[in-house]
Here is the input.
Amino acid sequence: MFGRRVPPHIVFASSVALAVLCAVLAFLAAQSQSWVWAAVAAVLAVWFTVDAFRSFVWAQAKKRLDAEQATQNRHR
Here is the structure.
């Protein structure tokens, strides 16, 4: 576990799940007029959404890089 990165698709899936959970919690907190908890949950939802987007971009970049390396290896 230490010294190894988590695969981007695992980060993407967990970030999406946590973003949805935080968004639901923010909505429920806003419904109960608990504004501090609604704001905290909304900030966390945005945080996890951005994290999911970044991991998706990383996964696409890795696929593109792997494809380029595969075509270069075929031409050698």
Q: What stands out?
A: The chain has a mean pLDDT of 90. Residues 8-74 form one domain. Residues 35-74 form the longest helix (40 residues). The chain has two helices and no strands.
